[in-house]
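DATA SHEET
Item: assembly model
Revision: 1
Owner: S.N.
Input lines:
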Amino acid sequence: MSDKRRVNQSSKEEQLDKFTVDDQGKDLTTNQGLKVSEDEFSLKAGERGPTLMEDFHFREKMTHFDHERIPERIVHARGYAAHGEFEVYESMKEYTKAGFLQDPNKKTPVFVRFSTVAGSRGSGELARDARGFSTKFYTEEGNYDLVGNNIPVFFIQDAIKFPDLVHALKPEPHNEMPQAASAHDTFWDFIANNQESAHMIMWAMSDRAIPRSFRMMEGFGVHTFRFVNEEGRAHFVKFHWKPVLGTHSVVWDEAQKLNGKDPDFHRRDLWEAIENGDYPEYELGVQILAEEDEFKFDFDILDPTKLWPEEDIPVKRIGKMTLNRNVDNVFAETEQVAFHPGHVVPGIDFSNDPLLQGRLFSYTDTQLIRLGGPNFHELPINRPVCPFHNNQRDGYGRQTINKGPVSYHQNSLANNTPRPVSEAEGGYKHYQEKMEGHKVRARSQSFEDHFSQATLFWNSMSETEKGHIIQAFSFELGKVKSKSVQQQVVDMFGHVSNRLATTVAEAIGATPPQVEDSGVTKASAALSQLNTKMKPATRKVAVLIDHDFDESVVNPVLENLKDVGAQPEFVSGKLGMVKGSNGKEIEINHTLLTADSVLFDAIYIVGPFNENSTFYKQTLPFVKEAYTHFKPIGATEEGKSILISNQIEQGQGVIYGLEQKEFSEKFIDAISAHRHWDRQVV
Ligand code: HDE
């Protein structure tokens, strides 16, 4: 058992321990347990002769290797996960009987996988894309999966269109380009011809699609679900995850550079935070709606292209999830975990959202091909922590040894066991919603307004965020080759905002839209990231430093940064130690060859600089790039020359020339602000 595991012992940890093996220090054997005496040379007929068939060790080793890969997920292939726990703040008894939402003293183990949607398993993590946010709660009543995204709405209203959407989004089949990108003809052709996507596209073109960190993004269950209480009374519910660090993003130029400098940027960020003990935290929020209020809104609550404005239906924060342990093995855990929105527990039920209804089929189906058969629930990461018994048998890779002759229901030989359990004893009972209607292939009229909430989103953005959305559209459509598709998209978004569509039309050489926008004037403050929490904690600060740095100034600043949880990392011309003016030694973490400004949240320019040195010459563009990405920059008296050479000393969020205490305060404020959008870009 590893040390990190001891910190967080839970029923799920104990279960995983039984399957966890440490090979270190052990003898090498075959899979049959036979000790192996030689693992470098195959068995040959003579030293220079052919390899022999009877070399079972070679055959076993090679065969296993040949079969190491499984199909990647058709969507959400690139993902990363961690273990943690969830605690509810107070009993939710009034609304739901779900066991894990009753007792504030109970900790429920969770496993969370974050992902991008479009890219392959090896793609860069900073793609402009929605992020998956899937949580498996290992409750005492069975596994509950909340399989959400970091965007609260979706592209389409009916699951039957999902294969079309994904075909259009994925690399084009004739040349398999572009990877992990929506900036191409088929995607935008789909959008223009399936205009229910308008609202989701507004989110996908916004900063939400390029998060700074998995730790700094919201999660949403997207669909309307149902809470059902002990008395059988139901409420509609929407689920939210609210990150304790706030919701923050990078800028698009930075995202593209990060994909080259560190395509693992998001997983590394999550992994390192957990290894450092900076456990990511998210509050679970719910919007609750009485059944009788179902028709009180100007949108249909079953329509997954609509959100419930938080100002109209407040988000009640009901608990907290903490991610506190990295996986031991990415394949066994992250890759083999199988989520399914249909994994529910008593007290949680579905709505008739036609997108959700289709998902309830797709997820098990996909695991059958991906994980190779119907026994994927036996994989350690997927096993519930409560017992499970039924008459399902056999299939590829079956591990359970079910005893006895009886594997059918009803029976007398085993006293009709395993037996169905009444609702009172915890048996799941579907909510008895009254249904009537004709069998039709149709979209409800109440799903036909595609633009009002897209405009609501646009209205809710700050000027900076609107600018980013315009840039994103101009980038994406700028990559589209078909003039007709470009024009169709401009015309479509004319319904959302004339200003948006006209500015984009100008940027891409299309004709401004000739349509009226939706006329919606409402805005929702909760949608703008400028209204999120601003904190310096876990922000990475590149300290550009060299020998003879002024310790009396620098040491207290470094202490102040650490006190608020910011993380200084030292960058210099060479690796090794640098010595301060009073002899203090600091170990350098990066050179300007191994680091880049895009890997940091803030820059502290210390120096001193020798103007002829390579370090100085490389520092100038490093700082300038951070400036153009609106990042906070602090400088010592010696570092000031870099600001002046780059002509950025007047910029917002550029801090220098103050006595130490005031400098620290202002610099920390600048770091908390995340980015300084009012800056003139040089
Ligand atoms: Fe998924 N989705 N999805 N999806 N989805 C999958 O299941 C599907 C949708 C989401 O980390 C697949 O195991 C259909 C909405 C996440 O392992 C597949 C439809 C939302 C993940 C599938 C949707 C999601 C998936 C592929 C339209 C946000 C990654 C691999 C009806 C609420 C889970 C897999 C993980 C994965 C089908 C739409 C979120 C093919 C048919 C809406 C986070 O089953």
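QC remark: The CA atoms of residues 162 and 478 lie 25 Å apart.
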